[in-house]
Fold this sequence. Notes:
The protein has helices at residues 18-26, 38-56, and strands at residues 5-9, 59-70, 76-93, 96-107, 118-121, 138-143, 153-160, 168-172, 175-178, 181-188, 194-201, 210-222, 231-243, 247-259.
Amino acid sequence: MTHHMSLERLWRTHPWCVMGAIFCLFSGSSVAQGVPSVAQLLNLTGNFVQQFVDRFGEVVCVETVSQNTLNPKGKIIFKQDTTMDYQVQVEVKDNTLMVHEAVTPQRPGRKSKHVPLLVTEGFSTLLLIFHPMFQGDFEYTVIPPSGDSAPGVVALHFQHVHGAPSPSVLRLRGQDYPLDLQGTAWIDERSGAIERIVTDLTAPMTEVGLRVFHSDVSYMPNRFGESSRTFWLPVMAEMDAESLHQHWQNFYRFTNYRLFSAKMEIEIPKKP
């Protein structure tokens, strides 16, 4: 890999009935008493993600990205920091989910023509894996609580069904390669809110030499002014990708959230 690698999130529609597939897959599952079933969690978190889709476009924030290239010993050999005004619009139309990012650099980082960097799009919306439109493409398992489990939070393991349409792809030299992802989401058992989601590849992608793709995104609730609505928004994320000869680490921070408002001024010329 000598060119930059771009990891993009593409949200596609599927021709089958997703909710029917979920029912068939989990109707016979059972978990320990007091822990929500997989079907209950998917219903809750599906509703939560739909609210996220409706509200995420109503806010803007500042995104700070640190892109690092590492040598085989894990030492940073190139670093680029960029601060941007950041807004995401999520659109559902004709059974298709589309993610549109708008970024305006505040202080563009220095560029290098010789050092490839990891470029991502739609990364803050990783939790859209749990949108009802895509739940049928994954298998889910509730992870039994342990001694260090947070009260009221359930860990749900997910794994992409190999061969099913993938909501995430690797774009390399203009070609898309679907990602088979597995991971864990930590979900509030009452509201279905996703507090954190971690993903990894189910297996190395030998066809493109991608050995590691790890991501970790955390979300927190926000309120603005006297609004009674709660906005769950990304606050911190990291991504680690490793090929046969290159290693990248990206770190993200989302701060200064505020409600988006568009102001229009119309000037009417005076009559002579």
